[in-house]
Specification:
By secondary structure, the protein is α/β, with parallel strands linked by helices. Helix content is about 50%, strand content about 10%. Strand 3, helix 22 and strand 4 form a beta-alpha-beta unit. The protein is globular. GO terms for molecular function: ATP binding; nucleic acid binding; RNA helicase activity. It comes from Panagrolaimus superbus. Belongs to the helicase family. RLR subfamily.
């Protein structure tokens, strides 16, 4: 008889557990919902560091829960367990075993025996002593010993890591193995493994099938059956973990176990307890498995031939059919007012012009008329016309395309491209045909530039495909903006489309610190015209039209309210004292910089301390204090010093910055939010990264520094209780109270009010929205759903970004009055159509005069107001300065238009020549550098292995630096990372590229059909050739690398050809991982899109 069944010698040796008995399987063994999960509220022990080696070299390395996986063998009651362990376990524990075995009721006996064994093996120390004795003397040890240590070759690294993460250190339950081994039905698990396509998993079934066959169990008592089940549950786990699959990855045992649990309603609760979102996890696993089983596809990408470049626009019919609703019947969906007709006049005459008109004056209608006139004119001449409107942000893509489509249907087809569309398509929506089959396209300039530069036929567009460029918010066309990058292509081309710019605020060209200068403002406006190749500026000059426009365009009343912080704030004062404490603690180390480094001036390390009258921490919130910290940090990073000292000082400055921003938050928000911020940031700061654990060696330099850092962090944490006590009385802030009173007063004036509150940061935006929502008076006045927020869609949710769908829905709710209060960052400054907004509040947030005009322009309702709430006179004076700059801008704009057409053209022409000369000079310098360049080897910053040479690095779309060495893929790994929110890039993220030593080299992107490896500037070091001299690495950036060491040119067609199949040819495992990441990204996007659609549908149903 096999040991599993032979281990039970008599029917009364142990009793069975009735799985359906509610008294035995208590509430702690059942899956919980969010409301009743007691374990979630219990403090969990800190997760230990993962072992550096795989498995357990000795018993002393084994945690108690791992040992309990073998409990049925260790405490097999068919052996003399009391005699075996009497010198190992305590007398009280022996008495518990005896007491359990003496119970006559079999049900109570088995219940007590199981929990007694688990209790005895509850601590590492006792469990290790018991395991040692078991291995020494138990007859059971021989058959199971090779499994117990989980060491090579019995287990693979990836399988062990998953076991360590998912079972030994489950994020919610620290006894997950006990739960599974107590109550999991075995039959469904083995039935699933029986039909597995993986031979290694079928092998697990073959080993254990005997115990689930009816003939095996029919002669056993209930007690026998329970004990057999206990052993089989444990053996299923460790046999799966130690399996060596061929078709699957080693770590897949866990997902196969989840699938097995999900295969039956009897075992599905186990999957739920392991992973609450197990269905999503299994969906992603299925994608991974399907990709692993696919044959390698050798790409045959279709590259463009330079000789194919068209010299005139290609017809729409070559790229697809128009939608059925496009009938080409004349559209008359709008009617221009007289002042709007004046704005269209010069553009409709074919001139390149910048149209400057106030926010709310209807520039989108003006643009629609100019576009329609342009296309009709070309059609009448039997010519092809195609217009592209560029907008600076993704929300404006959706808004402007909707406006143009409404105004131009059914005559013209309007398409948009923002980057979010490909989640809805099985194919690649970013193909050129999407743009070229339309009459009008709305998109961001970066997408357009990427497609201009693409060597792939499916994504390639040409300047000659478009007959008119319309730049919305064209004041952005400064030297670094994509608008100007795009215009550089136009400047260098023989083909010149008509250019129309739209703006409400050209600006005066100066920064906030510069004195207002009319000549500089005029020069700036002329420069904008020159960059956009505009011949003239258009604004409303006719007196009657001016009167008409003023009648239709509401100009809000400006108010500036200074709300100084309370003079006494115990919470803030305590944080400021902490800053002084940290400054004192690091002063001696800072002084060593002054003595050791020749030009490190003592003035750099002099940080302000709180004065006797500073009871609210304002000395630590000033711009000068922040500037001092920044300058000190910059110099420590830049100067040559030992890395231990640098790390210590940078970590200490990080603590000072945390305190500084805690105080800044405390000035603007209730203290509870500032306290949350402090605790969160300190939680991150106390992780020492590569120096984790270094503090143990106090006799080393790094050990001493780490102990000093730990002391500072502990000092801050020791104040938590005191700070918590101060929070309640410090919650009230003058500026926050004024914000609430402004909102309430506005509601009294107009119960249908729409209010936008501008704040500086994404996180502040989200937190303020949550805080105001929770305010009782606001909830009573507007309701619990009346507050929303919009932030950037180019950031992840973890960085307080949001999806474009969420952003659009929030704006729609605001326009329709379902939300009355909208918190926003600068993303809402420009163009967003909020027609009924009647109060703008700038919450200690000011920008340039352009921001001032744009923000104020969001208030379009009659009798609207624009209020700045400022905590200092500096902020208030900045706003007064913006008001004066707007006045200056309008004077200069009028002066420009009083010039004769010839004189203005001469000024613009001179500026164009200056820009052209500067571009030529830049190219000349770059060419000289390219000819004189030195060759460098790029080596891994950690292990030193060669990645590529400097002449194998190419630039893709200006911002991505590609390693064009096919062999660089060898022996590397690709970790999981993918795009969840679709950005404006043509490439898509397909993983993190890791060196064989584990160092991050960069990212993997999919560009057309090619997987390309990007290089992170901090992932390599430079070795000069042929001298073999290693360059000093002061935290390289690509800007430094390309200016100081070697130039990087744009990626060439032949380089892409060389890389297109290189991943699959050099590293098939990494190739599969990249494919999986790409599919997971699309899957996640589709899921998010469906979720957003459901939310929108629910919203429509609600309203």
């Amino acid at each position: 008889m096999n040991s599993l069944t032979a281990s039970i010698e008599s029917d009364d040796s142990i009793a069975i557990i009735d799985m359906d008995d509610p008294d035995l399987v208590d509430e702690s063994d059942k899956p919980f919902d969010d409301e009743t999960d007691e374990y979630k509220s219990m403090p969990q022990p800190a997760k230990p560091l993962k072992p550096t080696k795989i498995g357990y070299g000795c018993v002393e390395d084994m945690p108690a829960q791992h040992i309990r996986l073998f409990a049925p063998w260790i405490f097999d009651p068919s052996f003399r367990v009391i005699e075996m362990y009497q010198n190992i376990i305590s007398e009280s524990q022996i008495e518990l075993i005896i007491k359990a075995l003496k119970i006559k009721d079999e049900y109570e006996k088995v219940k007590n025996y199981f929990y007694t064994v688990v209790d005895i093996l509850g601590t590492d120390q006792v469990a290790q002593r018991v395991m040692k004795r078991f291995l020494e003397v138990s007859p059971n040890a021989a058959e199971i010993k090779h499994k117990i240590f989980f060491a090579r070759p019995d287990i693979l690294e990836e399988a062990f890591n998953v076991y360590w993460d998912k079972l030994l250190h489950h994020p919610t339950f620290d006894n997950i193995i006990d739960r599974i081994c107590l109550s999991m039905p075995v039959e469904p698990i083995l039935e699933y493994l029986k039909i597995s396509p993986e031979a290694a998993y079928r092998g697990v079934y073959e080993k254990l099938k005997y115990y689930v066959e009816p003939d095996t169990m029919k002669n056993l008592s209930l007690a026998h059956k329970f004990f057999v089940d206990w052993k089989v549950r444990c053996q299923v786990l460790f046999e799966l973990i130690t399996a060596k699959p061929r078709k699957h990855k080693a770590e897949h045992w866990y997902y196969e176990f989840l699938k097995a649990c999900n295969s039956s309603s009897a075992t599905r609760p186990v999957a739920f307890v392991l992973e609450k979102d197990f269905r999503d996890i299994l969906d992603k696993y299925e994608i991974e498995i399907s990709q692993l089983s696919k044959p390698v596809h050798k790409s045959t990408a279709d590259f463009v031939d330079p000789s194919e470049a068209p010299t005139e626009p290609r017809p729409q019919k070559l790229f697809g059919k128009y939608p059925s609703y496009i009938t080409h019947e004349y559209s008359a969906n709008y009617e221009l007012r007289s002042y709007q007709k004046e704005l269209t006049k010069k553009a409709n005459e074919g001139l390149n012009t910048i149209i400057c008109a106030p926010t709310g004056s209807g520039k989108t209608h003006v643009a629609a008329d100019i576009i329609a006139h342009h296309l009709r004119k070309l059609q009448h001449s039997d010519k092809i016309g195609r217009v592209v409107m560029f907008v600076p942000t993704i929300p404006l893509v959706n808004q402007q395309s909707s406006h143009l489509s409404t105004n131009l249907r059914p005559e013209f087809y309007v398409e948009k491209l923002s980057g979010a569309e490909r989640a809805t398509e099985k194919g690649d929506i970013r193909k050129a045909a999407t743009l070229l089959k339309a009459d009008v396209v709305v998109l961001t300039p970066q997408i357009f530039i990427n497609m201009l530069l693409s060597p792939l036929r499916s994504q390639k567009i040409y300047l000659t495909d478009f007959t008119m460029f319309v730049f919305d918010e064209c004041h952005h066309c400064n030297e670094q903006h994509p608008y100007n990058v795009l215009m550089n292509f136009v400047r260098e081309s023989q083909y010149k489309p008509q250019i129309v710019g739209l703006t409400a605020s050209v600006g005066d060209g100066s920064d906030s610190k510069s004195r207002m200068n009319p000549d500089n403002a005029m020069e700036h406006m002329v420069a904008i015209c020159a960059r956009l190749n505009a011949d003239t500026v258009t604004s409303i000059r006719d007196p009657d039209n001016l009167i008409e426009m003023q009648h239709h365009v509401s100009k809000p009343i400006d108010e500036i309210v200074t709300c100084r912080p309370s003079p006494n704030d115990k919470f803030a004062h305590e944080i400021a004292l902490t800053c002084d404490y940290i400054q004192d603690e690091i002063h001696d180390v800072l002084m060593t910089l002054v003595t050791d480094i020749l030009d490190f001036e003592e003035n750099l390390i002099k940080l302000p301390v709180i004065g006797p009258n500073d009871k609210n921490g304002t000395s630590k919130t000033s711009f000068s204090y922040n500037g001092k910290l920044g300058a000190l940090k910059h110099n420590i990073n830049k100067r040559d010093m030992d890395r231990e000292r640098r790390h210590f000082l940078l970590k200490a400055i990080e603590l000072l910055e945390i305190c500084h921003f805690t105080l800044k938050n405390n000035q603007l928000m209730p203290a509870k939010l500032a306290f949350e911020y402090l605790r969160e940031r300190i939680g991150y700061a106390e992780k020492f990264g590569a120096y984790e654990g270094g503090e143990q060696g106090s006799n080393t330099k790094i050990g001493n520094y780490m102990q000093r850092l730990r002391k500072m962090i502990n000092n801050i944490k020791a104040k938590y209780e005191k700070l918590d006590a101060y929070v309640k009385e410090s919650n009230s802030k003058p500026i926050y109270s004024k914000l609430l009173s402004c909102i309430e007063e506005q509601f009294k004036i107009d119960k249908t009010s729409r209010i936008i509150v501008f704040v500086e940061s994404r996180k502040g935006c989200v937190k303020m929205a949550e805080c105001v929502t929770a305010t009782e008076t606001i909830a009573k006045t507007f309701g619990s759903q009346a507050v929303g927020y919009i932030v950037s869609v180019n950031q992840s949710m973890a960085n307080f970004g949001q999806t474009s769908v969420t952003q659009d829905r929030t704006l729609k709710e605001f326009r329709q009055g379902h939300k009355n209060i909208l918190f926003a960052t600068s993303v809402a400054e420009e163009g967003l159509d909020v027609a009924q907004c009647n109060l703008i509040i700038k919450y200690n947030s000011v920008g340039s005069e352009k921001s001032y005009i744009q923000r104020r322009g969001r208030a379009r309702a009659k009798n609207s107001r624009s209020i700045l709430l400022a905590i200092s006179s500096y902020i208030a004076s900045h706003e007064y300065n913006n008001i004066m700059r707007e006045y200056l801008m309008n004077i200069c704009l009028n002066n420009l238009q009083t010039l004769s057409e010839t004189e203005l053209k001469k000024m613009i022409f001179r500026k164009k020549e200056e820009i052209k000369t500067a571009l030529e000079q830049e190219r000349r310098i770059e060419n000289e550098r390219n000819r004189a360049t030195t060759l460098y080897n790029l080596e891994c910053v950690i292990c030193g292995i060669l990645i590529c040479c400097s002449n194998q690095v190419a630039r893709l779309m200006e911002s991505q630096f590609i390693c064009c060495n096919p062999s660089a893929w060898k022996d590397t790994k690709i970790n999981q990372r993918f795009d969840k929110n679709f950005s404006v890039k043509v490439s898509s993220l397909c993983g993190v590229w890791l060196c064989q030593c584990g160092q991050k080299r960069g990212e993997v992107i999919k560009y057309g059909e090619a997987y390309l490896p990007t290089l992170a500037a901090d992932g390599f070091r430079l070795r000069k050739q042929p001298s073999n001299v290693l360059e000093e690495n002061n935290k390289f950036t690509w800007q430094v690398v390309t200016k100081k060491f070697f130039p990087v040119g744009s990626i060439e067609l032949e380089q892409i050809r060389g890389m297109i199949n290189s991943l699959s040819e050099n590293n098939i495992a990494a190739y599969k991982d990249a494919q999986i990441n790409e599919e997971l990204g699309i899957c996640e996007a589709v899921k998010n899109l469906e979720y957003e659609k459901k939310q929108n549908h629910a919203l429509i149903e609600t309203y």
